[in-house]
Each structure stands twice: as structure tokens, then as C-alpha cells.
What we know:
single chain; globular; alpha+beta; four-stranded antiparallel β-sheet
Amino acid sequence: MVSAVNYSLFRFLFGVLMIPQVLHLIPHVHDLSKSTFVFHYPGLGFIEAYSHGLIDFLAGLAVCAAVLLALGIIPRIAAFLFMVSFGYLFLIDVSFYNNHYYLWCLLAFLFVCTEAGRSISVFDLFRRRFKKEIHIWNYAAFALLVTIVYFYGGTAKLNGDWLQGYPMRLLTHAKKYPSPDLLGYFLSYTGLFFDLLIGLLLWRFSRSVWVVLPMLVFHISNYFLFDIGEFPLVMIAAWLIYIPLSRFPLRNLLQDVKTLRKPVFGLLGLFFAFQLLFPARALLYGGNVAWHRQGYNFSWRMMLNNHKPSYFQFLVDMPERDDRYHVDFEKLLTYRQFYHAYHEPRMIWQLAQKLHSDAQKKYGNTPVHVYCKSLVALNQHPARSLIDERVDLAAVPFHHFSPNHFVNPFIP
């Protein structure tokens, strides 16, 4: 057993930092009322923004749950309510996807599974009860998740564009920083080695100034350089989780894990097996994952690419009616949806299905063909055709676990 102080501080900081995250997401969810379409995740079509009232209710529930979690009041129930309400909101539309939002739900899940009820609450502070203890495996569970996130974030950077300094060099040029190419290379390689190493180093050297100082500088600079919300602050707070582990022998940690009740051990075992395997699914598809996007989400591929649309339009063809027309979706989607759709093959396929369905409803059961032309510039590369214009997208299925041949291969 070890002190619950660090666990309690992390719980408090996490709860507080989730409040602005909820408030940042809500306007985008409300904005869906201006769109003609909602991009559902596979199998999650039942998650809808049914009304503004429901959205506000879930937002209020998520904020209240975050406050309760921060204060340590019914923390496991609060964590569950936050996970469900916030998770529902960000899973309404694929365009809301953010690695950080996904991480918040996973961390909330761990608060449900760990001994949050034995941590120090606001009531304990009033009673001056600061010497509460929890098992070390509680710290190890959070540290393992954060380490997985860091490591996969680093391995995703082992690609040709990142090693050439992109898209960081594009960003430094856009912001007109001095020596933009040199700075772009510095940011790229600093990010690469930091992500690959920091999660592992913190397990044993979380008290070393040579580890802690670079960690603080990295996350604080990211917070001010990039618009990535509270992620750097949560990662700084996560440092507290590693501190008790740095002086706890591994054999004792493994012995402590044996104190877990079988249902909790099984649940956490399945959870971490999924976290280790699911991000690696991109290996099933081959090719450039940033281009075809299969296996991209829920895989900790963060700040890796810069996409720019050159042309994006659909052609609806009804040969029996001798009728064809173009559809420009830029004005029919929210800005956030369009920003994701033009370079996301599955979203493009979903739009084609909608156009096919709408045309058949309007013109009867007449054959309808839907084609798409999407020219996209990825990082420093010139714009290329993402979708094969010759393929009728209304007539082909979308494969979730094998390559989709209507996506043109990326040729550097």
C-alpha cells in the first residue's frame, strides 16, 4: 500500500481540466443543426444529436460529473457518468474525433475500475485525513495507459514525411517563425524522441530533473504553440502518477497486482490488451495510412499531417433520365465536417450513399451513379487524386478491415 496523495491530486486536476474540454466541444455539437448530414461511426448510428435540449443536458451532466470527480465525491460513479455523457457527445459525429477526447474517456474508465473511492476527497481535507492509502496497481494502471499513448504517438512519427520535418516545417513557415526549416526539423525530432522515450523513462526516473524538466518544457511549449486544448496540462498532471512507481520494485508491483479481484483483473486485462492491439490495426492495410485513413483514428496518430483541399465535388449521374449534376458539399456541411470529409475516404463514401438515397427518393427507383473527385495535398506533396473518379461509390461497399480499392494509392 502507498499514499493516495498523488492519485488524489491527479484525480482533482483531471476533473478540473475536463470542464473546459466539455465547453469547447458543445458548440460544435449544436452546430450540427446547420448540416444536412451526420457522419456516424460504424455500429453507432443510434448515437444522435436528437435535440439541443439533449445536448445541453449531456453537457451539464458531464460538467457536474467532472466537478464531483475532482472533489472526490462518489468518484467512481462520477467518472462513469463523465465517460458516458462526454463519450456520447464526441461520438455523435466522426468529425468530432480527437485523440484527446478518446483519451479522456479511457482515463475516466480507469477511475471507474481503480480504487477512486479510497482516495482523498474534499471531505477528507476538512477532516484533515491526509494519510489514506491505496494499492500501487492503481498508479500502474494509469501509467501504463499514458505510456501506451506516448509510445504509439512516437512510432506513428517514424514515417518519411515526419523525418523530413513535415508538417512542422509547414507550420513554422505559416507562422513566420525565424529559421522555419531548422525549427521545423527541431520540433519534429524532439517530438519523435520525446514520445518514444518519455513514457518509459518516467517509470523509473520521474524524480530526475533531467527527465522532469524536458517533460515540463515540452508540454508547456506545446500548450502555447499549438491549439490542442488541455492535453499538455493533463499530461503534466499525469507525471504525479509515475512518482510513486519510481521507487517501487517491479517484483513488489507484480505481487500487488495479484491482490486484484478476478473480475477487475479480467476487465483491466481486456482493456489493456485492446489498447495494445487496436492501434496496430493500421498494419493490416499497408500503404500510407495518412492518405487512405484506415486504422487512423483511435490509434494515437497526433499532429502528423497537414491536408489541404484543391478540389472536392460529387457528380450524380442518372443515365435513364439523361440527367447529371454536380454537388459541392462545402456549403451543405458544417465547417468542421467539411474540414474532415474531403480527405477521409469513409466520409466521402458515406456522402455518396446519401446522394444516391436522396436521388432515388426524389426521382423514383431509377439507376443512380455517384462519382467523386477529390484532389488533396498531403504535407509537402502536390495535390493528388484521392478517390478513383471512375468508381461508382454508390455501388461499392466500404471495407473496414481490408483495403478499399476506390481509394487511389499514394505515390510520393
